[in-house]
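Journal club prep, notes for RB
We'll compare a predicted complex against what the paper describes. Inputs for the zinc ion case:
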Amino acid sequence: MPFSAASEKDSKAIGLLKTLVGFDTTSYNSNLGLIEFIQSYLSSYDIDSTLIHDESGKKANLYATIGRTDIGGVMLSGHTDVVPVASQDWGTDPFSLIESDGKFYGRGSADMKGFIALVLSRVPEMVSSELTKPIHLAFSYDEEIGCVGVQRMLDLLEHQHIKPSCCIIGEPTGMEVVIGHKGKHATRVKVRGHACHSGQSPLGVNAIDFASELIVYIRKLAHEKAQNGPFDKDYEVPYTTLHTGVIGGGTALNIVPNSCQFDFEIRHLYEEDPQHLLDQIENFARDHLENEMHLIDSDTGFNFETLATYPGLLTDPGIEFVAYVKGLLDNNAHSKVIFGSEGGLFQKRLGIPTLVCGPGNIDQAHKANEYISLEQLKKGGNFLDHLLESLVLS
Ligand SMILES: [Zn+2]
């Protein structure tokens, strides 16, 4: 479908998406260029926004309210960072939006600058309408590394007298209503061994061997979860999972390694507390493995560091907010998804009913040649138009 098939509003959204994709906001970079662009775009419509910076001052969340400030309203939320393109085989420049055959290619086009562009494209109408309830914009940084940046925005919102009354996170769900996702806890384990010549290996403490024993134990717990549950059949994988994803250690084959490091994660059902599993893993390391290691050297052992953690999301499908959003979409279906979002934090820390619903497909996210289709942009735009209509006095 050529560019010309887009309506005026679609074209505005596509223009904004082109600008947003042009900022390389890979999580390890600053997002300030993009945030300052949004801030000045909003201020051109007389909307004040608050920036909430990180410790380094190189990244920021943006929060803005359009309309009255004496009651809660609908929060539209998205993250501004994207995943890296390194070692991905892209056919085009990932940081310039390229249209081909009704698809718009670029890093973040689906996850989730497409949604942010659509929201911004509707700002002129939000401003000129007499809104009965306000619309809040909440754009975060460092979501892709474990919902890290949004925490500072939550600190601010927590102390506000009037909070948003509901939240829509525009992660790519193909514009389907998502009421739930699992929580995640990511941990780094550092193993301190005792080096010696490999010819004397019984006199050393092999950090790789002991790391491996703990990894096998984590795998055993994963099998137990798969066997015994609890289960939630709404998920493709209906139970809590554990998995080790990164490992490194040792320097040479003829040296017993004195260090090994690995990262593992737990993706847990909403109702399950990951702390119980973490305790089991740490206890196994302390009570079984370290006891054995200390027979050689008492300075050896395990160190555990939390890399990222966020809660699961579960919104009661029976509440009015869910029916309201389904009505706007004219689609009564809802589901749960395999990926996480900031939604669990909005729900758990602020008590705000939250749904995930946005344009694009998660299958295209995080991969080479990520794209969003014009059809999805149109669907997302229609949804925002209906949302806006519902907030205006008729
Ligand atoms: Zn995302």
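Talking point for the session: The chain has a mean pLDDT of 96.
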